[in-house]
Amino acid sequence: MKVAFMFPGVGSHYAGMGEYFNDNFKIARETFQEASDTLGTDMVSLCMDKSRKLSLDALENAQTALVTVSMAAFRVFEQEIGIKPDAMLGYSLGEYSALCASGVMGFADVLKLVHSRGLIVSEYAASIDGTMAWVNNLEPETVEQICAEVKKAGEEVVVSAYDTPQKTSISGSNAGIRLAGEKVVERGGIPIPLRMSGPFHSPLMKPAADRYRELLIDSKIHSPNVPVIANRSALLYRDVEGVLDNLWLQLVEPVRWLDSLRYLLQEGMTIAVEMGPKDVLKYLLKAVDPNLLMVNYEKEKDVRRTEQALVVQETEYNQVITNCLAVVAGTRNYSTDLADYERRVVLPFRQVQHRYEELAASESSPKLSDVQRALQMMQGALTAKRIRGEERERHLQRVLNNKVLQMHG
């Protein structure tokens, strides 16, 4: 099992987000309070008071609110489920949440940065001629050709995000976006104007990027405790020095989300968790690999569904024990030490089998300790049979049905 955490960007925010976490988990309330103290504003009210929707839509507020809710979700997940991801990534702004969750930057530092980022970008975007649009039902190469044609006509338009094999975003001047939209329709695509305040992720934002770069220089960064994929390269951050360059260049270069997802799939990702509001990233991933297990983690029903999908439930304990017995009984022995085999395989197997039969006879349900004992027996028996580590791991994943066993409860 390989797990990736995905963090959403601007556009996924909505009034009421994070309410379930704030109502039910102390660690989430502490996260909102930390954000409020850092920014000098009531983040609970900003995120959850529907009368403040217009205030939430302001870019600097949307950005800090999204990071706050995403980090609250991450911290609740970490506490309640405890699966450590194999990689993290975030869409545009979401990259800050990923870097924060991976330990590269502190939560307070990230909040201050994204607030300043929002102010700088909004101020500059309001002073120039530019906007964005989605393009659906066309391959990226076709959209790139359209952008080149528009540029020949004297207007600036570039691909600003590669989302799926049939969905991109474009940024440019207002006239350029209109002309590109006409060409998109001619080729059978669907242009959708975005309610954005500027031509983000394009060279038109360079003055804002240069100004933001000055703020980044003194940022405190650390090595990640979980690998993070950079938007602009679709590759893992190789060193901490590259983090700051990626963050300011992100403003003028496209989001390579499609390549980022393909990288994860090539690395064997089997589960993706969208950590925060809505399920936009889940939808984008589904367009790339519809068979992958995808869950999002924010509303109560989604949290429950995530737990059921990722964590062995009490109703599954009996099956896990059955699976452990079946694996040990059905796996070939490569050891020639009969005394060791008796001690490390036969006796532990019989003890677990006896307990299993005892539970069945009394129509009792297994406890967590029974499952833990069965798993320990299986791992010890497979080791005694001289089964390689990789194969033991595969057996473990099959026994648990690619879930994790919470070691408390």
From TrEMBL:
The keyword Thylakoid does not apply. Residues 6-334 form the Malonyl-CoA:ACP transacylase (MAT) domain. One of its GO terms (biological process) is fatty acid biosynthetic process. Its EC number is 2.3.1.39. InterPro entries: Ac_transferase_dom_sf, Acyl_transferase_dom, Acyl_Trfase/lysoPLipase, Mal-CoA-ACP_Trans/PKS_FabD, Malonyl_transacylase_ACP-bd. It holds the Pfam family Acyl_transf_1. Keywords: Acyltransferase, Transferase. GO terms for cellular component: cytosol. SUPFAM superfamilies: FabD/lysophospholipase-like (SSF52151), Probable ACP-binding domain of malonyl-CoA ACP transacylase (SSF55048). The keyword Transferase applies. One of its GO terms (molecular function) is [acyl-carrier-protein] S-malonyltransferase activity. It catalyses: holo-[ACP] + malonyl-CoA = malonyl-[ACP] + CoA. This is [acyl-carrier-protein] S-malonyltransferase.
